[in-house]
Amino acid sequence: MRFLLRLIGFILLLTALSCSEEKKEDVSSNFSPEGRAIMEKENLSDEQISNLKLVEIDYSKAPSEMRAIAYKIFLRQSLTQPDLKALGENINKSFPERKPNGLYRYGRTLLVTAVENQNLDAVNALLEAGADPYVSTDPNNESEQIRSWNFLYLAMKQEGQKLPDSDYFDKTYANQLLQLYLKHGGDPNYRWPDGQSLLEFTVGDNFEGFKILLQAGADPWKRGEQDTPLAVQCVTLMRKPSCIQYLAENGYYDKTPENYMYDMIDAATNELEAGARTDPEEVGQSYSEYGRYADAVKLLLQRSHYPLGEGSTLYRLLYVESGTYRKKLQEKRDGN
């Protein structure tokens, strides 16, 4: 009886192994000869096999030498400058497959493939070889928005795990890509066709990226065709205390034009009056932002040397009733 059970177990094991091999053969049959060779040589996980298939789709119409580079990026193999420069204009091209196997795929340049495969060495090598970080990844797409997508846009969209006790995500990888972009002469004041600047892209959820760009020479007072400078928007629209404080500490408000001071004073007055009327219970921990915003505005006024009148509402909110927000929040915490 024991022998029979062992025999049955052995047969089941052989059957499972056979099915597994058949499954691998079925999967590999959907790949090109180059893809099958990679699968035979490398011990790929299911996720890696899926990613390899996407690389094949993205470069199915590309020249063979370009496809070979894409495989190297996927495998994290070294890219040589002679091989990359030999690609010529193809280093910036994409070959969108509109509906491969029912899957809609946007275009991918080699830079974007390197980003998606978390391959910083490849990104560095491609930029060094002259790959254009601004070229559209899908230049013939019907959507104007999608036509504006490029390496820089997709790089800044990268995010890791959600940060503890925060609504934001880890942007370490995005900032590593940003630093490579700047290292190779990228413009810290770059704007997309819709007018949004790279600096504006970071200010919402990537404070470290915001600082990296400023340190590289980004100008928060630089305007597009019809927009308000970011230094003003941080006070009037975005209401970002950390950004206001950083700009003030580094002298960006030292010579603020008077017309913009009026706009910022009006916005700060309205914001802090709203805070004085708000019940902390209604907004939870975010209520403390009012206090941080007030501190940042005070620093801005100090650095700009603006003569805020003692009879103004903002003066009262900042200096006479300066503890309003913290006091109300503390009372709620104490249960009073």
TrEMBL record:
Taxonomy, superkingdom: Bacteria
Keyword line: ANK repeat
PROSITE patterns membership: ANK_REP_REGION, ANK_REPEAT, PROKAR_LIPOPROTEIN
Pfam families attached to this UniProt entry: Ank_3
SUPFAM superfamilies: Ankyrin repeat
Residue spans of the ANK repeats: 106-138
UniProt entry tagged with the keyword Hydrolase: no
Keyword field contains Transferase: no
Annotated InterPro entries: Ankyrin_rpt (IPR002110), Ankyrin_rpt-contain_sf (IPR036770)
Name listed for the protein in its UniProt record: Ankyrin repeat domain-containing protein
Species of provenance: Agrobacterium vitis (Rhizobium vitis)
